[in-house]
């Protein structure tokens, strides 16, 4: 039977926690998926551990090793090696609810034949969050353009895309840079396609000390080309004047601290906004 879904996991030195995700996958009520792992140059026991998972023969597992180039490059690699109809990134520090794949297959049937819809979403909460399960899992709505959503607990949306659509939107890769924000791709897909949003809570996890979320601003400075590109992309959203000015401040800070070329500093985004930023800094 042809699997409908690739659960894709980019990983780097996460052998100490990867079993949690594996156990949630092998316990799925629906096994109609492939687990594709791209190992981004791990130096720990990841490869040996994945081989142990594979030998258990509980789920279909594919493993690819690449030189350490960053999560976004690993995602590109995963996309190039995906043959299933749907592709969903589940990080190595996350795990899925036992009915997650079953719900994902049900949602996939709703959008499979609509070429205007790129994919669907579900919620990932911290595994420390205590929430009323009766309040979630009831809403589904179609979004065109940049989505805004609120719920009472901190969390994030996980996107599951049709592979053929996601393969139109690979991450840009810059020499020497190992980070590019996922929101860049979500925005680009969302501008061209609709998304089926849901409030189903199907994933859990927490940000670890070795994760990308720690020292996030340092990441931006170490990867300026990807960071600046993402800021430029955000200017296509419907933004308030305050939001535009705050983005311009961040843009100016990054180009200044990373010694970007003169033309990129002053003309990479709206030069009038940059002028306001510079004037305000001199007033302080």
Structure explained in plain terms:
The protein has 2 domains: 201 residues, Spore Coat Polysaccharide Biosynthesis Protein SpsA, Chain A (Alpha-Beta Complex); 68 residues. Strands 1, 2, 3, 4, 5, 6, 7, 8, 9 and 10 form a 10-stranded mixed sheet that branches. The mean pLDDT is 93. It contains 11 helices and 10 strands. The chain is an alpha/beta fold. The protein is globular and about 65 Å long. InterPro entries: Glyco_trans_2-like, Nucleotide-diphossugar_trans. It holds the Pfam family Glycos_transf_2. This is Glycosyltransferase involved in cell wall bisynthesis.
Question: What topology does this entry show?
Answer:
Layout: E1 5-11, H1 18-26, E2 33-40, H2 46-56, E3 60-66, H3 71-80, E4 86-89, E5 94-96, H4 100-111, E6 117-126, E7 140-144, E8 155-162, H5 163-166, H6 182-192, E9 194-198, E10 201-205, H7 216-222, H8 224-234, H9 241-257, H10 262-267, H11 271-283
Parallel strand pairs: 1-2, 1-4, 2-3, 6-9, 6-10
Antiparallel strand pairs: 4-8, 5-10, 6-8, 7-9
Give the key terms.
10-stranded mixed beta sheet, alpha/beta, 284 residues, single chain, 39% helix, Glycosyltransferase involved in cell wall bisynthesis, Glyco_trans_2-like, Nucleotide-diphossugar_trans, Spore Coat Polysaccharide Biosynthesis Protein SpsA, Chain A, globular, 2 domains
Compact summary:
This protein is α/β, with parallel strands linked by helices. It is built from eleven helices and ten strands.
């Amino acid at each position: 039977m042809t699997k409908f879904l690739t659960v894709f996991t980019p990983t780097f030195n996460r052998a100490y926690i990867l079993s949690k995700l594996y156990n949630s996958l092998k316990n799925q009520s629906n096994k109609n998926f492939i687990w594709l792992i791209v190992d981004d140059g791990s130096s720990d026991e990841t490869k040996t551990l994945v081989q142990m998972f594979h030998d258990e023969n509980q789920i279909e597992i594919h493993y690819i090793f690449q030189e350490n180039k960053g999560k976004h490059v690993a995602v590109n690699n995963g996309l190039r090696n995906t043959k299933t109809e749907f592709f969903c990134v589940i990080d190595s520090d996350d795990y899925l609810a036992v009915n997650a794949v079953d719900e994902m297959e049900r949602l996939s049937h709703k959008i499979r034949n609509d070429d205007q819809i790129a994919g669907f979403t579900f919620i990932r909460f911290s595994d420390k969050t205590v929430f009323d399960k009766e309040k979630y899992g009831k809403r589904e709505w179609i979004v065109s353009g940049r989505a805004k959503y609120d719920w009472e607990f901190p969390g994030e949306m996980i996107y599951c895309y049709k592979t053929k659509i996601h393969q139109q939107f690979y991450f840009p890769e810059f020499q020497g840079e190992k980070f590019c924000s996922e929101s860049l791709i979500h925005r680009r897909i969302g501008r061209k396609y609709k998304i089926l949003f849901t409030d189903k809570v199907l994933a859990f996890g927490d940000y670890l000390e070795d994760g990308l979320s720690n020292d996030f601003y340092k990441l931006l400075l170490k990867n300026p080309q990807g960071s600046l590109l993402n800021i430029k992309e955000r200017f296509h959203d419907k933004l308030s004047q305050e939001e535009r000015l705050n983005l311009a401040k961040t843009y100016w800070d990054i180009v200044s601290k990373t010694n970007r070329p003169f033309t990129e500093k002053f003309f990479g985004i709206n030069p009038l906004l940059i002028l306001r930023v510079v004037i305000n800094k001199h007033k302080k």
